[in-house]
């Protein structure tokens, strides 16, 4: 028997503490009615419960939102009901005024009432509001699909035969294919290439790369590019103590190849393009040198190739953006341009490959984009219109009213484009398309473009129809020019044809050719294409009818005022006017009926939505309650048990404290 440590008393004391803590926990749960009062009570349960609570509150608010939406709809529908009543009265008056038993005084009296009714329709449209938001004035109507400058739509992605795209003239005098005023387009810039996993910066300067088309060959460009990249590699190795091998850049068989000097990294990367024309006009596919304030040089389409696949990963050391060089086995090499401070020029070694794709239509961020693919010479306005049929209203934009007028596949680009030319010819510039200056054989010819008439191309025709139209205008200008100059100075007629999606103009003297492209405004005026842009309106209203993002119902209410309904100009002062008014009012009644029907359908949908939301919230609340709420009867039982155990442990502690006193009997 020991007396320094009373082990039974210590054990009893510990158990008493446990029982008292359990009793206090039970009392806390009974006091709040919650099984979880702090995270320690049930960590996982608390997390699940809070997520459910967020959903429940969201569903409850969504239900209230739907109810508010119904109130808005009922407000608008009530206003349109009155508009309906007014239109019915107007139709009754129009029918009355159509009867010739009425004299002028009678019809004037009828017209006075009609005028008041029209004003009331406008007043209802202008003043009907819900929470200060106007409802039937068109401000929450469907946004009309923007009209399209047809030349721009019909020509997206069609240009295939360009060698140089300039904002100014393309001069081919004296048989020299020299692109004037281009050197200023190449600004000093810093480029980046990834070699053996290392990002190498190299410089491209105006003085280092001559940009005159007639002087720039594939070999000279390859030599310059190789020297600049390898200088960047040397600087990288010096800075980081690495041993990245030099690259070799070669030009052969119409391609530029960049090859790493590392062992095994032998997948030469190339971009190919057919070389056409004379005077060493080397067209480097995908080489795009541009500046915001100068001209630009563009190559034609080509394709990327790679020789072999051994150790390609040695080159693939960086994240690659979309649209860059792609190896056939999926690996990628990135060459990106980063302009130096103060400069806006860039060089992108990239290209696209023509695939004969058909026209496509897509909607991204509310913008309708129509791309004609690469079937350049056969696409027509009819192809465009077929793309938008059946789109209907999407996100409040009514694409079913999309309109394309005019004709044809027409290449669009700012400025004049030349394609592998010889001889002496200059294409027209960027002036207003009504009158342009076309220089042929060094002679400036003022061409007045004729308006599209009854004998000119019509909707659905292809580019060939327009080629004749342009040829006639140019040759008419040449004839006028020849009448004013000596015989030795006269200019031969030109022929206009379609090649690779462009209008190709050929001189009658020395067969010089020029591929002419117009910008949007020029094409519209030249071909008589009307810009059908519609006034931008609202895109409807959205009702948030769910607890999460994107769970919405969209509602549009069109303009229900007199002008939009077509009754603003109703005149019953004559029998003929009264008879015509009957049809106009019938159409207005039909428009209001259609809008009211739409409102009723959305209201019914919202009522079903509310019922579903309430059901979801109820069941989710039940699930959350099972996690969070306490079972009162069971917890009372637990508290009673803990109280009894606590009292028992106190009694046993008293007994344990008395036990060591038995030692005194041994001393007696």
UniProtKB/TrEMBL annotation:
Keywords: Bacterial flagellum, Coiled coil, Secreted
Recorded superkingdom: Bacteria
Chief site of localization: secreted
Coiled-coil region list: 100-127
Flagellin N-terminal domain span: 3-139
Key word Secreted present: yes
GO CC annotation, single: bacterial-type flagellum
Keyword Secreted: yes
Flagellin C-terminal domain mapped to chain residues: 583-667
Pfam families hit by this protein: Flagellin_C, Flagellin_N
Localization of this protein: Secreted; Bacterial flagellum
GO MF terms, alphabetically ordered: structural molecule activity
Stored InterPro entries: Flagellin, Flagellin_C, Flagellin_C_sub2, Flagellin_N
Function: Flagellin is the subunit protein which polymerizes to form the filaments of bacterial flagella.
Similarity comment: family membership: Belongs to the bacterial flagellin family.
Protein name: Flagellin
């Amino acid at each position: 028997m020991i007396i320094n440590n009373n082990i039974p008393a210590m054990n009893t004391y510990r158990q008493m503490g446990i029982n008292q803590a359990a009793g206090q926990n039970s009392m806390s749960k009974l006091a709040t009615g919650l099984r979880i009062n702090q995270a320690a009570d049930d960590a996982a349960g608390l997390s699940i419960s809070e997520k459910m609570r967020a959903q429940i509150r969201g569903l409850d608010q969504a239900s209230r939102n739907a109810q508010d939406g119904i109130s808005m709809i009922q407000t608008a529908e009530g206003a349109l009901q009155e508009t309906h009543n007014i239109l019915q009265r107007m139709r009754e008056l129009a029918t009355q005024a159509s009867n010739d038993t009425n004299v002028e005084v009678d019809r004037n009296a009828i017209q006075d009432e009609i005028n008041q009714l029209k004003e009331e329709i406008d007043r209802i449209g202008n003043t009907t509001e819900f929470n200060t938001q106007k409802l039937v004035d068109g401000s929450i109507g469907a946004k009309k699909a923007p009209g399209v400058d047809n030349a721009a739509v019909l020509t997206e992605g069609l240009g295939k035969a360009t060698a140089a795209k300039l904002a100014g003239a393309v001069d081919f005098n004296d048989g020299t294919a020299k692109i004037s005023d281009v050197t200023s387009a190449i600004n000093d810039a810093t480029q980046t290439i990834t070699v053996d996993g290392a990002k190498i910066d190299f410089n491209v300067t105006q003085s280092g790369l001559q940009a005159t088309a007639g002087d720039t060959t594939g070999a000279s460009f390859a030599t310059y590019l190789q020297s600049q990249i390898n200088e960047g590699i040397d600087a990288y190795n010096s800075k980081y103590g690495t041993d990245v091998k030099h690259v070799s850049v070669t030009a052969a068989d119409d391609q530029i190849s960049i090859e790493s000097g590392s062992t095994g990294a032998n997948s030469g990367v190339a971009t190919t393009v057919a070389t056409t024309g004379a005077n060493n006009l080397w067209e480097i596919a995908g080489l795009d040198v541009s500046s915001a304030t100068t001209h630009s040089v563009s190559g034609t389409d080509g394709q990327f190739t790679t020789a072999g696949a051994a150790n390609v990963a040695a080159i693939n050391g960086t994240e690659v953006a979309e649209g860059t060089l792609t190896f056939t086995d999926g690996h990628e090499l990135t060459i990106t341009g980063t302009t130096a401070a103060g400069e806006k020029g860039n060089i992108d070694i990239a290209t696209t490959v023509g695939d004969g794709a058909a026209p496509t239509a897509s909607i991204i961020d509310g913008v309708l984009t129509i791309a004609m693919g690469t079937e350049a010479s056969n696409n027509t306005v009819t192809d465009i219109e077929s793309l938008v049929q059946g789109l209907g209203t999407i996100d409040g934009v009514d694409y079913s009213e999309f309109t394309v007028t005019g004709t044809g596949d027409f290449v669009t680009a700012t400025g004049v484009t030349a394609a592998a030319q010889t001889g002496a010819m200059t294409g027209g510039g960027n002036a207003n398309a009504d009158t342009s200056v076309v220089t042929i054989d060094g002679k400036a010819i003022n061409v007045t473009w004729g308006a599209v008439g009854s004998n000119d191309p019509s909707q659905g025709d292809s580019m060939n129809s327009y080629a004749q139209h342009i040829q006639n205008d140019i040759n008419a200008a040449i004839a006028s020019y020849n009448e004013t100059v000596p015989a030795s100075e006269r200019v031969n007629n030109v022929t206009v044809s379609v090649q690779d999606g462009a209008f190709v103009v050929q001189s009658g003297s020395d067969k010089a050719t020029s591929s002419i492209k117009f910008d949007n405004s020029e094409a519209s005026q030249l071909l008589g294409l009307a810009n059908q842009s519609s006034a931008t309106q609202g895109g409807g209203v959205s009702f948030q009818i769910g607890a999460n993002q994107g769970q919405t119902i969209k509602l549009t209410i069109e303009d229900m005022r007199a002008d939009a309904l077509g009754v603003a100009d109703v005149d019953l002062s004559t029998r003929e006017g009264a008879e015509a008014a009957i049809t106009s009012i019938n159409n207005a009644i039909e428009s209001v009926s259609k809008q009211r029907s739409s409102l009723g359908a959305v209201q019914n949908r919202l009522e079903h939505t509310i019922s579903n939301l309430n059901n979801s919230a109820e069941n989710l609340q039940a699930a959350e309650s099972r996690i969070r709420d306490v079972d009162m009867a069971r917890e009372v039982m637990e508290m009673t048990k803990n109280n009894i155990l606590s009292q028992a442990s106190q009694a046993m502690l008293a007994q344990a404290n008395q036990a060591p006193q038995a030692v005194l009997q041994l001393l007696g």
